[in-house]
Write a structure and sequence with these properties.
It contains 16 helices and 15 strands. By secondary structure, the protein is α+β, with helices and mostly antiparallel strands.
Length: about 550
């Protein structure tokens, strides 16, 4: 008997074979990145997908084959077993040559399929086009073997009735259900593998980034880089931290980072640093830190808050650098700078007295001589009288300039009557010269301070008023000087155009601030004080705030 094929079902069987091959390749490729039970699960999943696809292809292929007699099937399995499951009034035999060919084709194409599977283990070769090509080749192996085996079959009519006790229905609904279920399972398998691949790639990239980060952190020897939990406990430790602080990782991990601070700072400063980092994003601080052996070093430390994508605090990173040598160098420079400022003040005082005593006296004598000459106007000509009068005016103006310069270099009232009198005198002269209205608030009972304190405060007021006159375009300036039990405070405020936040930030850096501001800051620092420049409190303008510790200001 001769059979025929329904080529629609043949096409469907080939499609199922190709999809099964693609799904198997996709699932087997995941075994490269997987480990343990997950790897076994992907292998089993690939086997199930391939097995289901082969069985479904064979089932659809058998249904595509039509004979001139009724054909029923026992429970069908694979090809030749499935052929034996056919129930029909005929005897099935095989041509040996085609039977051997079908087996050889299956083995050959299976070897190619195995080779392709191993090629796909390398992710850089596993592009979509490469996979589809491999799936087509693998998918061709299954129907080729099937339809070659079908061609090897010969059916001879028989009068013996077939055993139909275990036959199954092969209705249209049946093979439609098999096809649908197979395509659904294969589709789910492919989608699952694709999604898992993306997660796997992201995981591998993250893992690679973490390894690179760890290599970077461990390679840094001059910086202590470590992580803190949200509570402030040490959770990681790099070789630079061990070198800087003296603790091994097993000794410090789990302990609170407050152990790095001196005893006097331990109760408050660590918590303040963490709170600043949470509020501002990061917090930088310079100060003394304590090593494991109890020795101290001057550190520059930056704490940064770490948040996840949902805004939940995950912890902190901290980078600490030992800058003791820089601190010592800065202290040496500061000591020299302080000495230079003292010498400068002494020279100013000396020049001021010379101008006042020597040049001032000579100008006074010259003025007296010119006055005497003016009284003899009857014995000289009219033009000479006019010339004498002009000289008298020039001498008066020159005397005034010499007195002003002398007071600017070092006001004599500062030594004789103290800061309050010297400030009042200077403010009065400044207001007359600059036409800026100056409001001075200083207690009448302010009293005397050590000479270097009075000099420093006077220079701060002098420099600040000069800057207001030159830069602010403010019509008014307010000066408030107060003395409490803890501090001596000076505030100079204007209502001018003010400064941008960037400019104020630059002024905090030694290399960006002008000579005048650097001089003010250094004078105060020598005495344990500080200088801050802030925006106007009630509108535009700038406020200069100088503070000195009262404990050092007892005259």
């Amino acid at each position: 008997m001769k059979g025929s094929y329904d080529y629609r079902l043949v096409a469907l069987s080939v499609l199922i074979a190709v999809l099964a091959s693609y799904a198997a390749l996709e699932l087997s490729a995941r075994t490269t990145a997987a480990r343990g039970r997950v790897r076994l699960a992907w292998i089993v999943g690939g086997a199930i997908a391939m097995g289901l696809g082969i069985w479904s292809m064979h089932y659809i292929g058998m249904l595509a084959f039509n004979l001139p007699v009724p054909v029923l099937y026992d429970w069908p399995t694979m090809h030749y077993t499935g052929m034996a499951a056919m129930r029909l009034p005929a005897i099935c035999s095989y041509r040996p040559s085609l039977l051997i060919l079908s087996v050889a084709v299956a083995i050959a194409i299976s070897l190619v399929a195995i080779w392709l599977t191993f090629q796909l283990r390398e992710d850089d070769r596993a592009s979509a086009g490469w996979k589809i090509g491999c799936a087509l080749i693998m998918g061709a192996a299954i129907p080729t073997m099937h339809y070659t085996g079908m061609a090897a079959a010969q059916f001879t009519p028989s009068s013996v009735p077939p055993d139909t006790s275990h036959v199954v229905s092969t209705s249209t609904l049946g093979f439609t259900g098999v096809s649908a279920v197979t395509l659904l399972v294969l589709g789910v398998a492919v989608v699952t593998a694709s999604i898992e691949r993306r997660f796997s790639v992201q995981k591998l990239q993250l893992s690679a980034s973490e390894r690179l980060y760890q290599l970077l952190v461990n390679g840094v020897k001059d910086y202590a880089i470590f992580m803190l939990t949200p509570e402030g406990n040490v959770s990681s430790w790099n070789p630079g931290a061990e070198r800087t602080k003296g603790y091994r990782s097993e000794e410090i991990i789990g302990r609170h980072f407050s152990c790095f601070y001196p005893e006097e700072d331990r109760s408050s400063k660590p918590a303040q640093q963490l709170q600043r980092a949470i509020t501002e994003g990061s917090a930088e601080d310079e100060g003394w830190r304590v090593r494991k052996d109890g020795s101290k070093f001057w550190a520059d430390a930056v704490v940064t808050a770490l948040w996840d994508s949902e805004g939940v605090l995950q912890g902190f990173s901290k980078v600490t650098r030992d800058i003791t040598e820089r601190k010592q160098a800065e202290d040496s420079v500061r000591e020299v700078s302080g000495r230079l400022l003292q010498i400068q003040d002494e020279e100013r005082r000396h020049f001021a007295r010379e101008l006042h005593d020597s040049a001032g006296q000579m100008l006074a004598a010259l003025h007296m001589n010119l006055v005497a000459l003016e009284t003899e106007a009857s014995t000289i000509g009219g033009s000479a009288v006019n010339l004498v009068q002009k000289n008298l005016d020039l001498v008066a103006e020159l005397s005034k300039e010499v007195r002003t310069i002398s007071h600017l270099l070092h006001p004599p009232l500062l030594d004789d009557l103290g800061l309050s009198a010297a400030i009042r005198d200077y403010v009065q002269g400044f207001a007359e010269r600059s036409k800026i209205n100056v409001d001075l608030d200083i207690p009448a009972e302010f009293g005397r301070l050590p000479r270097e304190f009075e000099t420093a405060i006077f220079r701060v007021v002098q420099e600040s008023l000069t800057n207001i006159h030159r830069h602010s375009e403010s019509p008014i300036a307010r000066i408030r000087i107060s003395h409490s039990e803890k501090t001596v405070s000076v505030e100079i405020q204007d209502e001018g155009k003010g400064m941008s936040p960037e400019k104020r930030s630059e002024l905090k850096l030694a290399g960006k601030a002008g000579v005048g501001i650097r001089g003010m800051r250094e004078r105060l620092r020598q005495l344990g004080g500080t200088l801050e420049i802030e925006p106007g409190r009630n509108g535009p303008g700038t406020v200069v705030i100088a503070q000195l510790p009262a404990s050092n200001a007892k005259g």
